Amino acid sequence: MVLSIIGLQSCNADDDSSTEAPFFSFLNLSDIRLDTVVKAADVWEYGFRFSSLKAGTISRLGIKVPTLGTYKVRLYDLASNQLLVEKEVISNEKNAEHFVSINEIKVGSGADLGLSLVADVFFKAQNLSGAEFPFPQDKGSLRIISFNEEKCGPNGCATFPANSNQIVIAPCVNLEFKAAN
User: Fold this and answer.
1) Could you tell me how far CA 87 lies from the centroid of its own chain?
2) For every residue of 12-58, which 3-state class applies, written as one string?
3) What is the largest CA-CA distance in the chain?
4) Could you point out which of 38, 58, 113, 171 has its C-alpha 20 to 30 Å from the C-alpha of 75?
5) Integer-rounded Cα radius of gyration of the chain
6) Exposed, middle or buried: residue 18 (CB in 10 Å: 0-12, 13-18, 19+)?
7) Distance CA 76, CA 33 (A)
């Protein structure tokens, strides 16, 4: 097994500059159109399938959404199709990053993981050219394999969303990962 949960809470991720939080970087790409959806017709579960290029730990989960509210963030072990953690994250400021600490999860190199958000709000990013986002792509110690989404309702999906979308992505969920030395 490549994952284990440690019973320690992360103190402050700002204490170490080697902590990586790569998913919001899609919001800062040049040549993209960014649309804001503050109330979709349906509740979606959406996020990223990724793998670790190095062993390390995940210590916090986060969101960046255009509204105020409480949202469900989930981390999955896709090799076993198991939900590892589900945490509510409060957005008390629009368009700001909000993170919550979790019991650290040790991740082995090559772990197949999914990170998702259950919400009816999002930033929708699309290349101005209409081209697909190039997946997989490496960002630091993580390989982002795909953006996935599925209409699931307010409780989320039974498993990580199966539908991959490379044309339009919603990079509103994130985590903090620290590679082992």
Assistant:
1) 12
2) CHHHCCCEECCHHHHHHCCCEEEEEECCCCCCEEEEEEEEECCCEEE
3) 46
4) 38
5) 15
6) exposed
7) 29
Q: Which two structure tokens, joined as six digits, stand for 100?
A: 């919550």
Say which residues have a Cβ less than 8 Å from residue 63's Cβ, sequence separation at least 6: 71, 73, 89, 91, 97, 98, 117, 119, 172, 173, 174
Q: Which two tokens stand for residue 1?
A: 């097994």
Read off the pLDDT band of 181 (50, 70, 90): confident
* Residue 96 one-letter amino acid: A
Joined tokens for residue 80: 């076993």
CA angle 149–152–157, rounded 5-degree value: 80
